[in-house]
Amino acid sequence: SLEMERISNAEAHYYLGLVAEHDGKWQEAAEELKAALRQEAHFKDAHLKRAAALRRIGQFEDAKTEAKEAIRQKASSSSYYELGRAYGELNDGQKAMAAFRKALEFDDSDVKSIIAIADQLMKQKDVAGAIDVCKKYVEKGVKSHMLHYHLALALEAKGDLQEAIVEAKRAAQLNEKFAQAYAIIGKAYKELGDEQKANKYLSRYRQLK
Questions:
Q1: What is the Cα–Cα distance from 103 to 108, expressed in whole angstroms?
Q2: How many CA atoms lie within 13 A of 98 on its CB side?
């Protein structure tokens, strides 16, 4: 029937969109997902996937529209996260923060949104706020090398180098191939005047980079 054909066409475009997304071909992904949505107005999570693809190619207004559609269809931490990212790129920090906080109402261990809130606070020069947010979720038991890394970045910005080293080492323990953690540790030791440790961690960073 025509209905079945429409749905299988939507499925085909959606699948091609996922393949393009996987290959980092964001423009192509956005086009295939749009074709899927033309066949079937709210196909699977095509609005959400398209919002992410549009964001990657700098089409932030359209990404915002798609994220809002995704929320209308099925509100989730991911759909609010994408809305927040679009607002952030459009320099609306307040709406971005509200969207990221909403994302955490759906999933209070959504690391992407926690980090996005910390990033927004850092942009607003609220280093103490960024530290508080990261610490709050670390203490809640959220396990993520990226969370420890962002906490280390904020502590480094505050000038609390010893603490920054502790957090960056935790990030490296959770993901020992994570080069950025070693960069922070090396830089902090250098500033503290410990050349030997600085060189050890910076050479590890260069190996992994």
A1: 8
A2: 5
